Q: What sequence folds into this?
């Protein structure tokens, strides 16, 4: 069992590490879009797409960089007591709290799948069967949701990125859970 945990940890950590390192440079893309927004508003006609595109880039930056942040342990912790505990006690507390995070991310992921199905024109109550139907050909994409701004972009791309980010964050949380189990057992990771 520990071999499977080690394999899972290495695989998920490798994917999230590489993606996180790539997403670090997303801040420069965001800065470029905001710089163009400022220049176009000052010297030319203002671009309609810049502020909303900046929001979409920020969503991708945050959601796809989140698993990397969890992996590095750079998320917010209450170090008042936690910093003085032994590694084993930290692992027990982390094991307990990551279960709440996994539940929370599961609920968010379900909501994101429902919202993405809605953005693709599905108004039913079974979003997972809708996506299964898209794959098999028994479902069709309906009238797609668009933003209510003047630019009116489709919403499904950013919602799909949110699903991917939440799914990767969920995988990383399970990896952290396995790391805590191995630490409690006294094994090296």
A:
């Amino acid at each position: 069992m520990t071999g499977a945990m080690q394999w899972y940890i290495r695989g998920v950590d490798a994917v999230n590490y590489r993606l996180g390192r790539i997403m670090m440079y997303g801040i420069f893309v965001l800065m470029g879009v905001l710089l163009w927004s400022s220049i176009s508003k000052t010297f030319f006609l203002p671009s309609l797409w810049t502020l909303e595109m900046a929001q979409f880039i920020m969503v991708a930056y945050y959601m796809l960089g989140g698993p990397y942040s969890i992996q590095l342990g750079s998320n917010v912790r209450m170090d008042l007591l936690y910093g003085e505990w032994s590694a084993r006690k930290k692992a027990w507390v982390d094991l307990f709290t990551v279960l709440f995070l996994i539940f929370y991310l599961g609920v968010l992921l379900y909501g994101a799948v429902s919202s993405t199905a809605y953005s693709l024109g599905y108004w039913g109550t079974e979003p997972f069967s809708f996506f299964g139907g898209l794959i098999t050909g028994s479902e069709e994409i309906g009238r797609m949701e668009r933003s209510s701004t003047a630019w009116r972009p489709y919403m499904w791309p950013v919602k799909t990125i949110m699903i991917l980010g939440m799914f990767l964050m969920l995988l990383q949380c399970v990896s952290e859970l396995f790391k805590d189990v191995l630490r409690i057992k006294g094994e090296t990771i």
Summary: Residues 2-185 form one domain. The chain has one domain: 2-185.
